[in-house]
TrEMBL record:
This is Heme-binding protein. It comes from Dactylosporangium vinaceum. PANTHER family: SLR1406 PROTEIN. Pfam families: HbpS-like.
Length: 136
């Protein structure tokens, strides 16, 4: 099954929240399909009010750039980042956005915000591991 399902999205969110609790930070997380539409999103108690908006931008950036936002930030020089974010305001290069693949197929993206960049990436990594564990 190549599509990202609601059950998949909920698995991703639950694992991201579990990791956030272990990190001691309240996060917001968003799961998008390949069209950039939200499948599911969650904002923990105590996360900043615009957390969902930033989580969406991180997920959309990863989806659009086809790589983790932290990786893209290292790959693109600042002038290119500025040009891309100006042309596509829904894209960000902040760490915490990651594409989701099933095999080699891109099926969506996850964005996490609320901690440091490293904490957000750790939440994404935990979420991807949890989703992989559910694969047949």
């Amino acid at each position: 099954m190549p599509d990202l399902t609601l059950d998949d999205a909920l698995t991703l969110l639950a694992a991201a929240v579990t990791q956030a609790r272990a990190e001691g930070v309240p996060i917001a997380a968003a799961v998008l399909d390949t069209g950039g539409l939200t499948i599911a999103a969650h904002r923990m108690d105590g996360c900043f009010p615009d957390g969902l908006a930033l989580a969406d931008k991180k997920a959309y950036g990863a989806l659009n750039l086809r790589t983790a936002t932290a990786t893209a930030a290292e790959a693109f020089p600042a002038p290119v980042q500025l040009a891309l974010t100006t042309a596509a305001p829904r894209v960000t290069f902040l760490p915490g956005g990651t594409p989701i693949h099933r095999g080699e197929t891109l099926i969506g993206a996850l964005g996490v915000t609320g901690g440091t960049g490293e904490q957000d990436v750790a939440c994404c990594t935990a979420a991807l591991k949890a989703l992989a564990a559910t694969a047949p």
